[in-house]
Write a structure and sequence with these properties.
6 strands, alpha/beta, DNA polymerase, domain 1, 12 helices, Rossmann fold
Length: 246
């Protein structure tokens, strides 16, 4: 990706926002961005859905990524039974899914993520996590995998929000925790609904396509830039900083 392409993306954003892009913080999604874990989420969701006779495909769970567990279960119940799930059904299904995910998950970091985090810090930008996950087991691994990169006051999880992605609420909360405005941040997302949430929050949203979905799915949600991996984002980070005058 050339500097001119990145500069045009920045300029297009600035024209639409009427504000100069002046990043002071980067808001990272977790699954599929910091961890190579979406394949295990999708597998666990599909197995639990099948066990409860809920209509689904494995691709659904890449498309639903970023939703809270409750919202995902409601989507499946509406499709299958034309009603939302009860609180008891949600609790039982989410507990089963979480147990399967913990069984399958190998905790592998996403290749290139450490490099991106280091370059973000070197540029003097804050690092925050904004995730739809409510699984404490994965959240607790952040300090082990990425020492001193994130602090609890710089995290937004499923426990903090009412609506979750694709609603902009999680990223708007991330801006508040960072103490910055929308034109002073980047979002890094791999999920269509996460991209939609970042765009709806008015933030320059960088998509990294680390899963099986077509690039077009992420572009259609309004991504300002798209990279094929976190490794590619790390390589192009200096050009992005140059484009915003950092």
């Amino acid at each position: 990706m050339e500097l001119d392409f990145i500069r045009k993306a920045v300029q297009d954003y600035e024209v639409r926002k009427g504000s100069k892009l002046n990043p002071k913080a980067v808001l990272f999604d977790m699954d599929g961005v910091l961890y190579d874990s979406m394949r295990f989420h999708a597998r666990a969701w599909k197995e639990v859905a099948d066990a409860h006779l809920l209509i689904s495909t494995e691709e659904d769970f890449y498309l639903y990524e970023g939703r809270t567990g409750s919202s995902t279960i409601d989507e499946l119940y509406m499709r299958t039974f034309q009603r939302k799930a009860t609180d008891e059904e949600k609790q039982a299904i989410y507990e089963e899914k979480s147990a399967l995910f913990c069984h399958y998950n190998d905790g592998e970091p996403m290749p290139g993520a450490s490099d991106v985090l280091e370059k973000v810090a070197a540029a003097g930008l804050q690092r925050l996590v904004v995730t739809g996950s409510g699984q404490k087991s994965l959240i607790d691994k952040l300090e082990h995998t990425y020492p001193h990169c994130f602090t609890p006051d710089k995290m937004v999880t499923a426990f903090d929000v009412k609506y979750g992605k694709p609603d902009p609420e999680p990223y708007l909360m991330g801006l508040v925790k960072a103490g910055v405005s929308a034109h002073e941040a980047f979002v890094v997302e791999n999920a269509p609904l996460g991209v939609r949430a970042g765009v709806a929050a008015g933030i320059f949203t960088i998509a990294v396509n680390t899963g099986p979905l077509a690039d077009e799915v992420l572009w259609k949600e309004g991504a300002n830039l798209l990279f094929p991996s976190m490794e590619s984002l790390a390589v192009h980070w200096p050009l992005l900083m140059q484009a915003v005058g950092k």
